[in-house]
Amino acid sequence: MKLTNSRYGFLLNLPGLLLVVFWIFLPALLLFLASFLRYDNVRPIVFNGLENYRHLFRDRLFWVGLENIAVFCIGTTGLTSLGGLVLALVLSAIVRGGGLFRSLMIVPWAVPAVVSGIIWKWMFSPDFGVISDLLMKVGLIQTPLSIYSNPSLAMVGVIIADSWTRIPFMGIILLAALLSIPGEIHEAAKVDGAGAVNRFLYVTLPLIKGPLLVGLLITTIFSFRTIDIIMPLTAGGPGRATYVFGYYIWDQIVKSLNFGLAAAASVFLFFLTAAIAMIFVYHLRK
Amino acid sequence: MFDRFIESRTLAYALVIILTSLMMMPVYWTVVTAFKPDVETYVFPPIYFPLHPTIAPFKLLFESYPFGDYLRNSIIVAGVTTIVVTFTGMLAAYGISQYSFRGGNLTIYALLVTRIIPPLSLLLPFYLLVSWLGLVDNLLSMIIANIYLTYPFAVLIMKSFFDAFPRELIDSAIVDGCSRTGALLRIVLPVGAPGIASAAIITFLWTWNEFIYAFVFTSTSQSQPMTVGCFDAIGDVFVNWNQMCAGALIAALPGVVFVFLAQKYLIRGLTAGAMKF
Predict the structure, then answer these.
(1) Given A5, A112, A254, which is nearest B99 (Cβ)?
(2) Is there a contact between B125 and A33 (Cβ–Cβ < 8 Å)?
(3) What is the predicted ipTM?
């Protein structure tokens, strides 16, 4: 018996579909269920209605987490887009040695996030930090910097470290977009008397809008759930200065063992991410 | 004047070198510190080139922490995940790309949606499942979790490579008596090898770099991977920074090696997989 083409295609996808059903939809279902349970590993598990959600929205820490993640997300996405765009622009302008520089540029992407956190902690070390030394040599600061123990600077330090790991990806997709623009378009604009800045604003930028939006989307939703780079750097501190929303979920699971509340917070994170993604997808489809 | 300056090749190269140096600074600092003796590590102002380079930090690292175990666990988890994901993902991508079936579009959408789901939000149910199955502190728990984390992206990458494959070639092979699976092995596989390679590399690196799930699922060095090991070592009251940098270097090594070996395919894979939104 010979299978039809469409059956054959389906059969090839069956393992993956089963995986999606069992390992993604089943946990997702379990998550929704748990968010309606009183599940704190102390008292017996009972149905709890919307009590977890009520608790969540009344919890001051939850709002602290949301505030911090907003700052972190905007900071990281902004710095990453700027860095990625500049990097892509200069890389698209060179020919010789391009491959080597591209390899060097992607390296931070390949470093595990938690390891990046460790590296940046060492670079910003208050006692032996290389960054303090460089800034002092340039004359920007007089005494060594202790960025991760300073509540008003810790967030900046975390954003710098996180952007370092994200700039390569942004750079890669923008570089691909820049290289796919035909040279004639630039020549034509030049003949028409457009200057370099104008050509960038009115020719280049509109042509890379799609990839730029994709890059922004991915950076936003990925930085939104970041905790692994923050854990070695500040562990959410000092005080609550870098206590991002992901940490709230993390603490409920690992420290408080309040699984019901963790589930409610996770469901919230899920829908918030979906909403952010929707905004971008809407603009991409336009 | 300004235009000529901003478009000059010299400026482009100058900027490339400055920016790359900035991006490489943390890597350079890690490498340098990993080969420093203690006296050169704990000084201020810091020493930029080690005066007496030594491999002592690496030796001490393996002596004072179970880094050998961490390394073994990371290799097993990343290796098995990569093989499973690449193989099943390749079949799925071939099916979606060349043999349209009812629900094919739905499958693609399902994969895209799962890309958006924050792994952190599924951590709790995954942990519950893992503990009910008795897989806590077992390598299998991380393999399962990482398959879920990497499968969608791997399929999307390979699909985009297979989509570019001319259908007529497959059809003519089938006319010549080749089966559809034979066509996959003999024609699509060799031509699509770069796509499969980039999916495999990205899967390997993501699994190798994964930390959150591994941290929650493991409790001893019997199953802890590299990332968890590094994090544990930095939790000590006194951090041995030159040893830490040696550990960071080992943890980052596969990534760096793959970047230099397969930069072109990595870039193509990442761009192809990203553009699927």
Answers:
(1) A5
(2) no
(3) 0.90
d(C-alpha B56, C-alpha B37), whole Å: 7
Interface A–B counts its CB contacts (< 8 A) at 291
User: With bands split at pLDDT 50, 70 and 90, how would you rate the model's confidence at A116?
Assistant: very high
Residues 191-250 of A with CB under 8 A from B: 195-196, 211, 214-215, 217-218, 221, 224-225, 227-228, 231-232, 246, 249-250
Cis peptide before B125 (omega within 30 of 0): no
Count of domains observed in chain B: 1
Rounded-to-integer distance, Cα A196 and Cα A44, Å: 68
Report pTM: 0.90
CATH (domain of B124): 1.10.3720.10
Q: Strand A37-38 vs strand A46-47: parallel, antiparallel, or unpaired?
A: antiparallel
CA distance A182 to chain B (A): 17
Closest residue on chain B to A223 (Cα):
B118
Asked if the Cβ–Cβ distance from B147 to A20 is below 8 Å, we say: no
* Domain coverage including residue B82: 66-274
Hey, is the C-beta of A145 within 8 angstroms of any chain B C-beta? no
Q: Which of B239, B202, B203, B210 shows the shortest CA–CA distance to B227?
A: B210
Contact B274, B62 (CB under 8 A): no
Q: What is the mean pLDDT of each run of 10 residues along chain B (277 residues)?
A: 72 89 93 90 85 89 90 94 93 85 81 84 91 91 91 89 81 80 80 88 93 92 92 81 91 89 85 69
Name the CATH architecture for the domain at A36-285: Orthogonal Bundle (1.10)
Contact at CB, A105 and B20, closer than 8 angstroms: yes
